[in-house]
Inverse folding.
């Protein structure tokens, strides 16, 4: 159960990075980097959730 909660937290963190409003701040120059990092985070944690779900489905 703890692994599932961590994966969901990572997925929500990735969405937060994608939706971070950086326009008009001193961080606007790193906006493409933050978007790329958020996209990679969402893909990795979504894959981990799918993997753990399929593994649990066939295990029990």
């Amino acid at each position: 159960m703890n692994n599932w909660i961590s994966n969901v937290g990572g997925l929500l963190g990735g969405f937060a990075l994608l939706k971070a409003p950086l326009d008009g701040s001193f961080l606007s120059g790193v906006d493409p980097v933050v978007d790329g990092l958020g996209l990679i985070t969402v893909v990795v944690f979504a894959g981990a959730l799918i993997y753990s779900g399929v593994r649990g489905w066939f295990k029990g």
Summary: The chain has a mean pLDDT of 92. Helices lie at 2-18, 31-59. The chain is about 75% helix and 0% strand. The CA atoms of residues 20 and 26 lie 13 Å apart.
